[in-house]
Amino acid sequence: MSQTALNELKKISKTFRQIASRLLSTDYESADLNLKRLIEYINNNPVLIDYINDVIETFTKNNPNYELKGEGDRTGHYGRFIFPTSLEGEIACTWTLLNEINDSEYDLLRFAMGYSSPRGKFQDEIDSFNKNVINPFVNHLIHHLEDKIEEAKNAEQFEVAPTYSDDFMAFLRPLAKEINLDSELTDRCLTHVSGNANDPKAWDSALRNAGVVLENRMRKVGKITDSSLVGAKLVNALFTDKGVLAHKFQVESERQGFRDLYAGAIGTMRNPSAHKFIDPIPEEGGAYLMFINLLLKKLDELSK
């Protein structure tokens, strides 16, 4: 589901709450108008009316002879309505009742009479009807909208652009398969984020280890035993024109490019994480690991 669809669901939810709130807090003289607004909004939004119709279909199939009844009589007032105890039954019968009220020659107040006990003022009857009938129905629909929004959020996290093949996208998601990741990164880094993928602190530990893995690999490839060589000095020991890997390059600018690439990685990524907490968001943490993974592969190629 696209971001546009998610935003539309949020907009529907917000507007529905506003219209429902208007009915739930209505004065008795405006009750019919506000009920009409609610019914029209539901009917004009498939995410709501389709859900209600599905619920009604299920409830009717399981309860073919059910008839909503009230404590009163239809010539005067209904009294309190007796709703089913199931969620489906309450939604189905409330929606049926609200449409009956909206289409009736009587106003909402006539149907609400008897909900205030002992018999109160007109406003008390409307307030009590809203509390006992309208509010539970509204809450059911709000929960439905919240579920749809959550589904849309989850779908968006894993959504892949339809114009790209799965094979192509797999190359952009190497963390999805450990075989695509350097074995030392897998051993030293993935253990920190396994089961804690949303925790920036876990990624902080993983990235700190990744920096150490990179430095150790540089020492191994360059056969450097001098522990005093760190950071830029270590990079220079490998990639300057007199470095141990200089003979691997036929083009001077390429050697210089490698030197700058690794010096930049050490300076902007390895050093900061070694001296302070970075706590990157997962997206940045994953990108960092993939970049280190690429640098390790290039070092391995140069060592052959």
How would you describe this protein?
- This protein is mainly alpha-helical and 304 residues long.
- The chain folds into 2 domains: 3-157, no CATH class; 174-302.
- The chain has helices at 3-24, 31-43, 46-62, 87-103, 108-112, 122-157, 166-170, 183-193, 200-222, 231-239, 252-275, 282-302; strands at residues 69-70, 81-82.
- A two-stranded antiparallel ribbon has the order 1-2.
- α1 packs antiparallel against α2 (31-43), α9 crosses α11 (252-275) and α10 runs antiparallel to α11.
- The longest helix is centred in the middle third of the chain and has 36 residues, at 122-157.
- It is rod-shaped, with a radius of gyration of 33 Å.
- Residues 160-172 have low confidence and may be disordered.
Radius of gyration, taken over Cα atoms and rounded to an integer in Å: 33 Å
The strand count comes to 2
User: Average pLDDT value?
Assistant: 83
Proportion in helices:
55-70%
Strand order of the largest sheet: 1-2
Low-confidence stretches: 160-172
What structural class do helix, strand and pairing data support? mainly alpha
**Overall geometry:** rod-shaped
Largest sheet: 2 strands, antiparallel
SSE sequence, one letter per element: HHHEEHHHHHHHHH
Number of helices: 12
What fraction of residues sit in β-strands?
under 5%
N-to-C CA distance? 46 Å
Number of domains: 2
